[in-house]
Design goal:
This protein has 319 residues and is α+β, with helices and mostly antiparallel strands. The chain is built from 7 helices and 15 strands.
Amino acid sequence: MTRKPRIPPSPLPQRRGVDPVRVKLPVDGAWETVRDHLVARLKAGPGVIDGMLRDGRIVGADGVPVTADAPYAPGAFVWFHRDLPDEVPVPYDIDVVYRDEHIVVADKPHFLATTPRGSHVTETALARLRTELDLPTLGAAHRLDRLTAGLILFTVRPAERGAYQTLFGERRVRKEYEAVAAYDPATELPRTVRSHIVKERGVIAAYEVPGAEPNSESEIQLAEHNGELARYLLTPHTGRTHQLRLHMSTLGLPILGDPIYPVVRGPVPPDDFRRPLQLLSRVLEFTDPVTGAEHRFVSARELDAWTAYDTWQGSDARQ
């Protein structure tokens, strides 16, 4: 059996809860220097790599800065920190509802991404919790959309992360969501919605393929209604991107505050926290794969459009 080569630990600490970038130099590389490979691979713009090398920002496994003329070393690793983007702070706290030596369960607000990605790096649940809890090894076991509030499971020990991720991959986590949308007495509920959902890379909205074999399933129930609004309980049995939002829209009940379904709206300024998407990850329930404990967690958050519609509709939405 061929063993995977061991990846050395990062010689650089996290920065504001964000890991440094690790680059492995290809074994079959034909570049003369490390610098030549990084320029060709990263396409960072004229002079960027040279400036980082000059400032000692790119280091090898021993933590020593790589020089501009360092010879190419097939299979070696280098690390560096990207410049962190300027981000508008998300003005809401992330709450920890449970913590032990294996997991952390957090109750995140709307507008906070789960993990660093794209223009959201330090303003993410993972980066914040790593810093606030002083847990640099913290990792996400699954994702929750940036616009969706509610419960997320994080792992404390990297060696155990796969076991918790497998729970989600094998659908052994019971998840329950709440949503606020229009009330339509003509829509028969409860019902199970199945469809074939496609999410293309680089395209903001997912779509359904009529007649194709279903790859998604959601159970939709009416919890209560009040005038023209209703509160719904949503139980996803699969985990396709935007599944619940798309299924609600397909029923003619798009979730309040959704900027994508049924129609993609124009870009929202990064400092606009009005009218958050009225979707909440309310319940996570599972058997702990490490300890065997039975866990059931419930979010303490409420959906503003249901509890205080005028506040949600106004210019100063609260979590």
